[in-house]
Amino acid sequence: MIKVLIVEDDPMVLNLNKRYIETVDGFKVVETALNGKEALRFLTSHSVDLVIADIYMPHLDGISFLKEMRRRMIKADVIFVTAAKETDSIDEVLMLGAVDYLIKPFEYERLKSSLESYYKRYQLLKRNDVIKQEDIDQITKRGYYNIENTVQKGLHKKTLERIRNFMKKNEGIYFTSEEVSEKLHVSRVTVRRYLEYLVSISELTLEIEYGSIGRPSHLYKHEIK
């Protein structure tokens, strides 16, 4: 069982996060704290596996809390669940070793996915003295939070895979949404949504071609990274 400490200054959000976390198999919230100072006091005499923390907190904010954890050599992983969107904050906590960063408001499925990925990592490292490269790939950014496994709300995996596979098979060729629609017999509006999603996760590149008449053409292409 993975022991969790939640650090959140809003009692309502704290209780909501606690309920969310305990719906995921393998996790148990053993303590909660309203700020970083309270959390550090608990951690001086208790061990946990995972800390779920906010950035914006009184007395000791989340970044200072994580720095102090590291200074005291407290061995616990940290996932931030916060409204902080500043890139400096995100960059700093990731450099300090945070294993994930969720921006409020977030979908419950995103938190569930993060915890399930963490659980796989935890089990793999705890149960084995030596692991293979492919195992490491599963717990690093290549496999740990694999974006292909998290489909945007409203999109269907089977349709996404059809369009993704079509673009991969036609590597390096630009297509309009109309052309993909004709090839796959899927409505143009639907195809456009999925192509835009694949662009948003950097699987496709988009080029806008401006003609002399009418609207510009949106051209999509898959390239090997």
From TrEMBL:
<dbReference type="GO" id="GO:0005737">
    <property type="term" value="C:cytoplasm"/>
</dbReference>
<dbReference type="Pfam" id="PF20714">
    <property type="entry name" value="HTH_64"/>
</dbReference>
<dbReference type="InterPro" id="IPR048714">
    <property type="entry name" value="DpiA-like_HTH"/>
</dbReference>
<feature type="domain" description="Response regulatory">
    <location>
        <begin position="3"/>
        <end position="119"/>
    </location>
</feature>
<keyword id="KW-0902">Two-component regulatory system</keyword>
<protein>
    <recommendedName>
        <fullName>Transcriptional regulatory protein</fullName>
    </recommendedName>
</protein>
<keyword id="KW-0963">Cytoplasm</keyword>
<dbReference type="GO" id="GO:0003700">
    <property type="term" value="F:DNA-binding transcription factor activity"/>
</dbReference>
<dbReference type="GO" id="GO:0003677">
    <property type="term" value="F:DNA binding"/>
</dbReference>
<dbReference type="Pfam" id="PF00072">
    <property type="entry name" value="Response_reg"/>
</dbReference>
<keyword id="KW-0238">DNA-binding</keyword>
<comment type="function">
    <text>May play the central regulatory role in sporulation. It may be an element of the effector pathway responsible for the activation of sporulation genes in response to nutritional stress. Spo0A may act in concert with spo0H (a sigma factor) to control the expression of some genes that are critical to the sporulation process.</text>
</comment>
<dbReference type="InterPro" id="IPR001789">
    <property type="entry name" value="Sig_transdc_resp-reg_receiver"/>
</dbReference>
<keyword id="KW-0804">Transcription</keyword>
<dbReference type="InterPro" id="IPR036388">
    <property type="entry name" value="WH-like_DNA-bd_sf"/>
</dbReference>
<keyword id="KW-0010">Activator</keyword>
<dbReference type="InterPro" id="IPR024187">
    <property type="entry name" value="Sig_transdc_resp-reg_cit/mal"/>
</dbReference>
<dbReference type="InterPro" id="IPR011006">
    <property type="entry name" value="CheY-like_superfamily"/>
</dbReference>
<feature type="modified residue" description="4-aspartylphosphate">
    <location>
        <position position="54"/>
    </location>
</feature>
<dbReference type="GO" id="GO:0000156">
    <property type="term" value="F:phosphorelay response regulator activity"/>
</dbReference>
<keyword id="KW-0805">Transcription regulation</keyword>
<dbReference type="InterPro" id="IPR051271">
    <property type="entry name" value="2C-system_Tx_regulators"/>
</dbReference>
<keyword id="KW-0597">Phosphoprotein</keyword>
